[in-house]
Automatic annotation (TrEMBL), chain A:
PANTHER family: PUTRESCINE TRANSPORT ATP-BINDING PROTEIN POTG (PTHR42781:SF5), SPERMIDINE/PUTRESCINE IMPORT ATP-BINDING PROTEIN POTA (PTHR42781)
Keywords recorded for this protein, A-Z: ATP-binding, Cell inner membrane, Cell membrane, Ion transport, Iron, Iron transport, Membrane, Nucleotide-binding, Translocase, Transport
Residue span(s) of domain ABC transporter: 4-236
Cited Gene3D superfamilies: P-loop containing nucleotide triphosphate hydrolases
Pfam families: ABC_tran, TOBE_2
Lineage: superkingdom: Bacteria
Native species: Pseudonocardia ailaonensis
Protein name: ABC transporter ATP-binding protein
GO-annotated molecular function: ATP binding
From TrEMBL, chain B:
Places the protein is found: Cell inner membrane; Cell membrane
Coiled coil region boundaries: none
Gene3D superfamilies reported for this sequence: MetI-like
Name of this chain's protein: Iron ABC transporter permease
Source organism of the structure: Pseudonocardia ailaonensis
Membrane spanning stretches: 21-46, 66-88, 97-120, 132-154, 184-206, 226-250, 271-302, 322-344, 356-378, 384-401, 445-467, 487-508
UniProt family annotation: Belongs to the binding-protein-dependent transport system permease family.
Membrane topology according to the record: Multi-pass membrane protein
Domain ABC transmembrane type-1 per the UniProt entry, residue ranges: 63-244, 318-508
PROSITE patterns reported for this sequence: ABC_TM1
Top-level taxon of the source organism: Bacteria
UniProt keyword annotations, A-Z: Cell inner membrane, Cell membrane, Membrane, Transmembrane, Transmembrane helix, Transport
Length: 325, 514
């Protein structure tokens, strides 16, 4: 079952094209992350899906209902979406409880049990119900914003970089609470972020955006291990270039392969596939990053456990584990 | 700041709200009416007519008087206001809170009450010296307030940095402090200059003729449209010169405002032996600006033979003032709303033009606004002449910026995402307006309305010219009684006006303090 289907979406501002025929399919009931560098059109995509803006071309279908398309433009309030912005955007004149019930019909706004339920769902003490938004921390505001978005039981929740304005410590706990709440509610969710680690760790599926289109989409582990091109590989994590000789018959001799730094293992002896001299070491505690020059002259970066750090100048062996990208 | 980063690539689509746009344009047209009236008058008179009407010794004398007054008065206000602000904010002067209040309080005494107070205590106190002295005492807070706010907010780190780079204390003042004060100083000086160009009551009672008083006399004596219009043309030219001069001098300094959140207060300069002279100087200023008019009023009440408290009459007059104030505030806020919305939500060339237009209307003297409305009214809608509606329209043109400032600030605090979030929650545009936008700007409307209300209560010039026959406000009652030297009869109105203006002065102090 498809939760959200976007076909051929285009939008430009003046002469600057932002979306260039974007396609995206989001399965129902799961969290899909749309990840890409700043300015690739992620937020524009969300605003078009939400109906805040009108596309130049293309269709948007939510839960099988066309909401944007030729001759169709459903108003945002009729799309059954939940929308969480970067800094929560709570209504400053309303208490937490009245923020959460904002989207409910008048009769249901009084029901305190619904507020308590939703606060519990996002991992907040129901005692927060009568606080004002400015009395909450950034992470709490984001949780309330999510509770508010979930209250009218939307068909689709859109999260626009909801964790980027939080500091590191709050970010981890807020992410967990938000993802758990969304999983419990079973809502189709699109998370937009520029943080690839966030996308890989939180989402069931990840779509990588570049220059206004989705270039690759799939489960996070598959994307990380089998990126479609060098750009996707470099965006999702660090890469190391290694010179290689292809052993299959009939192939050219010289080639370059890409691996992740954590695939390189340093050994003390010289019996590995490559010998290298350590140039410098950046020590982080649990692990260290080592820069080394191979006998063939290539400089590679590798990771090694914190208790096995070589000295600069030492000769080490390097072996590769796992498949190349 | 994170919002700026993430939103850098997004430009909001231009919102299409033809109704609100049309409303904003109509308001801009109303505020530009006075300027249009002057231009039309000049065109109608033709080059020869203009020369005949303007190239007269009388006009030369008025020009000399007006320019001298503006130059001397503005300089005096800048010196007094900056000096007082520095003493109160940056030195070890005792009683800071008291002085802060006393230095803003003269705003609560209308200049024409101040002048009558001085003249009554010191008969023969008139002419240029008197005019400069009294207007300076009335208007120096317009410089004091913004300069004090900046002095309070300047990060002392800049000064310390200057010292560490080898500058002595005076060179730090010249090269670090003064450049930061420049926008506040220029803004304050511009306000003083515009007030001086528009001042009518104080100058009339001190027998010092400027364009404003001459236009009034000419209009009252001869009802001479063309002559008054030409004088108004020269006056408007002077206003525009002041505006352009300030804009040119301020330049880009205006863009970089001192931030509000400053971690640390600067260490005060120790006055030491200079404390006593400083206290005496500030006390003298307070006595001259507040003490003299208040003592005058008190002595009239006690000793004047004409003192009377015709309670019913006074209550009626006060009710008229309050009613006009409320109507003026309501109309001004309603008219300012579409312009403020346009300025905040649809930043663009048209929005900036419309907003500027409303400020130009306010920079013109009340007498020009009144003349324009009378002339246009008589020609276009005679039924409106000497009607309350026309008087209220004049108030709206004159005081719109007071409402605009509050409304803009309130609207700017509503991020557009709030609308989006409201819509995403299934609430339509009207519901979002009622449940989000209006509750959020209610306080801004209240504050702006209060400022307009209090300005209307002490307005004299336009009210004298435009008020329907038989309508008497506290200001016009004070004016007519004191013109006939019935000081005792005038005193209760003045007292009521001061009591009503005090909250406005307080509001302005608070706003400047932020």
């Amino acid at each position: 079952m498809t939760g959200l289907d976007v076909r051929g979406l285009r939008r430009s501002y003046g002469d600057v094209p932002v979306l260039q025929g974007l396609d995206l399919t989001v399965p129902a009931g799961a969290l899909t992350a749309v990840v890409g560098p700043s300015g690739c059109g992620k937020t524009t995509l969300l605003r078009l899906v939400a109906g805040f803006d009108r596309p130049g071309a293309g269709t948007v279908t939510i839960d099988g209902r066309a909401v944007t398309g030729p001759g169709v433009l459903v108003a945002p309030e009729r799309r059954r979406i939940g929308y969480v912005t970067q800094d929560g955007t709570l209504f400053p004149h309303l208490t937490v409880a009245r923020n959460i019930t904002f989207g409910l019909p008048r009769r249901e706004r009084r029901a305190r049990h619904r507020v308590a339920e939703l606060l519990e769902l996002v991992g907040l003490d129901p005692a927060h119900a009568d606080r004002r938004p400015d009395e909450l921390s950034g992470g709490q505001q984001q949780r309330v914003a999510l509770a508010r978005a979930l209250a009218p039981r939307p068909a689709l929740v859109l999260l626009d970089e909801p964790f980027s304005s939080l500091d590191t410590e709050l970010r981890a706990s807020t992410r967990r609470a938000v993802v758990d709440a969304l999983a419990a509610a079973g809502t189709t969710t699109v998370l937009v972020t520029h943080d690839q680690a966030e996308a890989l760790s939180l989402a069931g599926r990840v779509a990588v955006m570049r220059d206004g289109i989705v270039v690759q989409e799939g489960p996070p582990a598959e994307l990380y291990r089998r990126p479609g091109d060098r750009g996707v590989a470099a965006f999702l994590g660090e890469i190391v270039e290694l010179p290689a000789r292809l052993v299959e018959p009939g192939s050219r001799n010289g080639a370059t392969v890409l691996v992740r730094p954590e695939q390189l293992t340093l050994t003390a002896g010289g019996d590995a596939g490559m010998i290298a001299e350590v140039l410098d070491v950046a020590f982080y505690g649990p692990y260290a990053e080592v820069r080394a020059r191979t006998t063939e002259g290539t400089v590679v970066r590798a990771r090694c456990p914190g208790h096995l750090v070589p000295e600069p100048g030492a000769r080490v062996g390097i072996s590769v584990t796992g498949a190349v990208l | 700041m994170t919002r700026a980063v993430a939103g850098a690539g997004i430009r909001r689509p231009p919102l299409r709200h033809p109704l609100r746009l049309a409303a904003a344009l109509a308001v801009a047209a109303l505020t530009l009416l006075p300027l249009g009236y002057v231009v039309a008058g000049v065109v109608a008179a033709g080059p020869e007519g203009v020369v005949a009407l303007v190239w007269r010794p009388r006009v030369g004398e008025l020009l000399r008087n007006t320019v001298t007054l503006v130059l001397l008065g503005t300089t005096a206000c800048v010196v007094l206001g900056t000096g007082a602000a520095w003493l109160v904010e940056r030195t070890s002067l005792p009683g800071r809170a008291l002085w802060t209040g006393l230095m803003a309080a003269p705003l609560a005494v209308p200049a024409f009450v101040n002048s009558v107070g001085w003249y009554a205590l010191f008969p023969g106190f008139d002419g240029l010296d008197a005019a400069v002295a009294v207007t300076t005492l009335s208007y120096f807070p317009l410089v004091y307030l913004p300069v004090a706010a900046v002095l309070r907010g300047i990060d002392p780190a800049f000064e310390e940095l200057g010292r560490s780079l080898g500058l002595g204390p005076w060179r730090v003042v010249a090269r670090v402090v003064l450049p930061q004060l420049r926008p506040a100083l220029l803004g304050g000086a511009l306000l003083v200059g515009l007030h001086l160009l528009a001042e009518f009551g104080a100058l009339q009672s001190l027998r010092f003729d400027t364009f404003t008083t001459a236009i009034y006399d000419q209009f009252q004596s001869t009802f001479d449209g063309a002559g008054a219009t030409m004088l108004a043309g020269v006056l408007v030219l002077l206003c525009l010169l002041l505006l352009a001069g300030e804009a040119g001098l301020a330049g880009r300094a205006r863009i970089s405002r001192v931030g509000s959140g400053v971690a640390r207060r600067a260490a005060p300069h120790r006055l030491g032996a200079a404390t006593l002279p400083a206290v005496i100087a500030l006390s003298a200023l307070a006595v001259a600006a507040l003490g003299v008019p208040l003592v005058s009023l008190a002595s009239w009440l006690v000793t004047s033979t004409s003192t009377a408290f015709p309670l019913a009459e006074l209550a009626g007059t006060a009710a008229t003032s309050l009613g006009l104030g409320a109507l003026g505030a309501l109309a001004t806020c309603l008219l300012a709303l579409p312009v403020a919305w346009l300025a905040v939500r649809c930043r663009g060339r048209l929005a900036i033009l419309v907003e500027r237009a409303t400020y130009i209307g306010n920079s013109l003297p009340g007498i020009v606004v009144a003349l324009a409305l009378i002339t246009v009214g008589i020609r276009v809608v005679p039924a409106l002449y000497q009607s309350t509606a026309m008087l209220v329209a004049a108030y709206a043109v004159l005081f719109m910026p007071r409402a605009m400032v509050s409304l803009r600030a309130a609207l700017a605090q509503i991020p557009p995402e709030l609308d989006d979030v409201g819509r995403s929650l299934g609430v339509g545009p009207a519901g979002v307006l009622a449940r989000v936008s209006v509750p959020l700007i209610a306080r801004g409307i209240g504050a702006g309305g209060a400022l307009v209300f209090l300005a209307v209560v002490t307005e004299l010039t336009s009210t004298l010219l435009l008020a329907p026959i038989g309508t008497e406000t506290l200001a016009t009652r004070f004016w007519s009684e004191s013109s006939e030297l019935h000081y005792g009869a005038a005193a209760p109105s003045a007292l009521l006006m001061i009591v009503l203006s005090a909250p406005a002065a307080w509001l302005l102090t608070r706003r400047a303090a932020r």
